[in-house]
UniProtKB/TrEMBL annotation, chains A, B:
Domain Amidase, residue spans: 85-547
Catalytic residues identified in the record: 141 (charge relay system), 214 (charge relay system), 238 (acyl-ester intermediate)
Annotated EC: 3.5.1.4
InterPro entries in UniProt: Amidase_CS (IPR020556), Amidase_dom (IPR023631), AS_sf (IPR036928)
UniProt catalytic activity: a monocarboxylic acid amide + H2O = a monocarboxylate + NH4(+)
Protein name in UniProt: amidase
Classification via Gene3D superfamilies: Amidase signature (AS) domain (3.90.1300.10)
Family: Belongs to the amidase family.
Keywords: Hydrolase
Enzyme class, broadest EC rank: hydrolase
GO molecular function: amidase activity
Residues bound to substrate: 189, 214, 235-238
């Protein structure tokens, strides 16, 4: 079991409220699904196998929870599964998972089963599904409102029971989806980890590591198979980071293509860089399922901020797909497992002859990252400090880190305009650079390494760079994991940047390293073991359909 | 001839520079096309007929300059016209027009003819056109760069010779277009009139009136038939206002659909409300020609800020088109000619049975207009005052008006975020309102009356409301003009707003009014006579293709 880590704290008033919230959440775990204390206390670092060993899930439930969303929909539509047994299976497993990795913020399985019951009756009566997602259990990130359920914008001061569904959940409900849990996100929703007033979410593959964030509750839950598909959001990597850390699939579509109307936020009107919402799921085809069905509901007719993206995945490419490989961004060198996986992918893609493989050189990712960090909090994060103060909430280290100078300033209109011009110029220059490369897509790391130890995820640029550019990205598993016998970190004496040095030293401390290099305390030696190694594939803005088709082709080559 | 109006002024340094600029412009008029002083001095208020009487244009040139852009392209492509004779005809007429209405800022007909010569040679040699706009003369607004030509962002401090084409003019050039003149825009590019350091552009139909702005040079030039199509920009009505005042066609597409990359501006990075660029032209089909050909060049692949709009004009509608008629916006009642034309259109559309006609009620247009005015200058217009100061340029009355409190403030990041939230909320609420109306398109006034006397165009909301919403709009002529015998203004004692009172009093002062109402000095009695009455048709954001198809259908009904 992972070392006990500090909890979020605050004033007595904060503690009173948060204690009540945690009690409410704990009370939502039915006694029948409560894990014995010893199972929790003696769980191995890798808890993904635990649910199957608890005896709480039937063979059929274990089989159901192994399915991806597409298979779930197919099996329910063809009568091989009922909605009730599907929702029950995922719901039970989600509750078990939560006790191991603290991934949930609201549990309402009975409500989900009641809806599933209605859907089964509809199916029986009408002989058909109510919609393409009939009976599909979907997990939902905390700040995405579901009528009657708890939600927050990442601070105690923003906790509320949602009066209504937001547009996204309303569409999903119309399509037949069933809701049953909401998932954890960090304070401020601006960590690439997941530590909130509800607690700290752990990485299922190694609980001493972070599942990433901010949609880390989703990532951990799906890796635990307590959900096959969930809804996340991403303004700096918050879908892709946790998807990578938990070894699942996640897509950040081009912003303003999927509806975020009425999602909770605490900087409404801030539009220097735009968040995006998208699926986190168990397979590439689930991404297509989710987006195609949501877009078919024509959300742009209701949410006028949306761009009506035509969703039409090409079945082939007019000429051989040109795949750029970016091993590092010139600012921070990724850890050995990431470089190993990318090198293997490059070799396999090249050998296949099915795509054209070229090296992709990054364009001033340090500059782009500086700009996007400044855009996140244009008021110097006064809004964050005010919200913390309002509820007596103490600031967490990663919140402090993300809002601290030099990357945040309290701007006036003139300096803000200059900052946005800098952003626009960067985007223009980057576009020219990308066009000169001739790449259709770029395969790159999603993070400068696999899942980090808690409280260390400070270099977001591998994902955030695509947020400032608004290039869509898909994260998917390489199939590899960190392996001590293969992933050996060489000592380095020169570095690209301070962040590079930090990232290197983190690795030197935590990787298993041969004795002739650096000695480590035995306790630490296994700390990063088991972490999944993931890829990120990126395409130009609004080339979401090209991206989905390219990911399918590339994953096909890599796994054949 | 119109009364002599005040010229733009400034410091001695300003005067020296501007005098040289005006001298340069005047020297670009060849002696062979210089109008005798008496023709200019004794011209009637309506100067549209003057070019044909000068003896400077041949019958063929008069016939060529009567064509729309689509016909020009067809005739050149089929060998009925050469590029040289076409460019020569429009160029000569443009130079004549300029001497009557002061619509140009740069004249380079020789360069245009030289290019036309190359195109003719290509056509002769290859037996085909170089591109779909082969030989088409296109006039260009001052702040839209053309390589080697003068340009400015509306202030002397920003005047420069452009080093390169911008993306738009580069695409048009590739498509075969020929450039020959640039057109006037007002100081700050933020008047709905056209008064700049180069002088004041006059309305061809009645030179005591404004041609509107800020693309007023384009509007006046096209109404004078010195161009059949030109490029304008619109952030508050700057395409639609001048199109309306000059009785031509103009479309403001949804923003970020046509490229504005490298257009000159003086608030780069300001993105609270986004400008749009589009065609001003001689027919509805010219709008389709222009946009379809520019989009076919795939500008979104180069300008990454663009949304890749699919340009596919529906040939019919799945159900009868629902047309809302908005006679007024609840804030300022339009002048009688506008109301007369709308009432006639409503009757005709209803009687046709070909569309469903309903009354469209505006939704808080006063609020929307307040918000958009504040968004125009988020720094309280410091940037404007600095640019004026830099070159010793005096502020013009309409610049002072547009940047004055209460509608401009120097914001900080926090208040700016609140303002943008107010904008987003308004857009959301408006979208719900529009959806409840069930309208596909709304037919409404483009301005609270026909062309105003100079220096009085202060109520932009009939166009600016659609800028904050980013709903595309087409302005097109009703075929009617202000007629003293029909357009009688009733005295009113109560008003919607101060702006309504201003607009009413303007009309009472200037309209011909029966003796039993209000007596007017005879001099003033004819002041607004001859002004074209125009319509504005609007559709939801990104429904540009629906809009173009609907305008065609509606204009067909109205003119049959």
């Amino acid at each position: 079991m992972a070392t006990k880590l500090a909890e979020a704290t605050g004033s007595p008033a904060y503690t009173t409220k948060v204690t009540a919230m945690k009690k409410r959440l704990d009370s939502q775990i039915p006694d029948s699904l409560r894990l014995p204390r010893e199972i929790v206390d003696t769980a191995p670092l890798d808890v993904t196998g635990v649910p199957a060993t608890t005896g709480l899930l039937t063979e059929k439930e274990l089989a159901i929870t192994a399915l991806d969303a597409t298979a779930v929909c197919e099996k329910i539509a063809s009568g091989q599964l009922t909605a009730v047994e599907t929702v029950t299976a995922f719901g039970k497993r989600a509750i078990i998972a939560h006790q191991l990795v603290h991934c949930l913020t609201d549990i309402f399985l009975e409500e989900g089963i009641a809806r599933a019951q209605e859907l089964d009756e509809y199916y029986k009566r009408e002989g058909k599904v109510i919609g393409p997602l009939h009976g599909l259990p979907i997990s939902i990130k905390d700040h995405v409102p579901l009528k009657g359920r708890w939600a927050s914008a990442g601070f105690l001061a923003t906790v509320e029971v949602s009066k209504d569904d937001c547009l996204m959940t309303s569409i999903l409900r119309e399509l037949g989806a069933v809701f049953y849990v909401k998932t954890n996100q960090p304070q401020s929703i601006m960590h690439l980890e997941t530590h909130s007033m509800y607690g700290r979410t752990l990485n299922p593959w190694n609980t001493s590591l972070t599942p990433g964030g901010s949609s880390g509750g989703e990532g951990a839950l799906i890796a635990m198979r307590g959900s096959c598909i969930g809804v996340g959001t991403d303004i700096g990597g918050s879908i892709r980071g946790p998807a990578a850390n938990s070894g699942i699939y996640g897509m950040r579509p081009s912003s303003k293509t999927l509806p975020m109307k009425d999602y909770l936020a605490y900087q409404f009107g801030a539009d220097g860089v735009i968040a995006s919402t998208g699926p986190m799921c168990s397979s590439a085809r689930d991404i297509d399922l989710f987006i195609s069905k949501v877009l078919a509901a024509k959300p742009a007719q209701i949410d006028v901020s949306l761009v009506p993206l035509v969703w039409d995945i090409p079945q082939s490419f007019p000429k051989k797909l040109r795949v750029g490989i970016m091993e590092h961004d010139g600012v921070v060198l990724p850890h050995p497992p990431t470089l190993r996986a990318l090198a293997a992918a490059k070799a396999k893609l090249t050998a296949s002859g099915l795509v054209e493989v070229v090296d992709y050189k990054p364009f001033k990712h340090d500059l782009g990252y500086d700009i996007v960090r400044e855009l996140y909090f244009e008021d110097g994060a006064k809004v964050v400090r005010d919200l913390l103060k309002e509820a007596g909430e103490d600031i967490l280290p990663l919140t402090e880190w993300v809002i601290s100078p030099p990357h945040t300033k309290d701007h006036d209109a003139t300096s803000l305009r200059a900052l946005r011009k800098q952003r626009d110029d960067y985007k223009d220059d980057y576009s020219d650079h990308w066009n000169e490369s001739g790449c259709d897509v770029v395969l790159c790391p999603p993070f400068p390494g696999t899942a980090n130890p808690h409280d260390t995820a400070k270099y977001w640029a591998y994902t955030a760079i695509w947020n400032i550019l608004d290039y869509p990205g898909i994260v998917f598993p390489s199939g590899l994991k960190l392996e001590p016998s293969l992933d050996v970190m060489e000592a380095r004496s020169s570095f690209f940047s301070d962040a590079d040095k930090f990232n290197h030293e983190l690795c030197m401390l935590l990787f298993p390293i041969p004795e002739n290099r650096i000695e480590l305390a035995t306790d630490d030696a296994q700390k990063m073991v088991g972490a999944p190694v993931s890829f990120q594939l990126v395409a130009r803005r609004f080339n979401d359909c090209v991206l989905v088709a390219a990911q399918k082709l590339i994953e096909g080559i890599l796994t054949e």
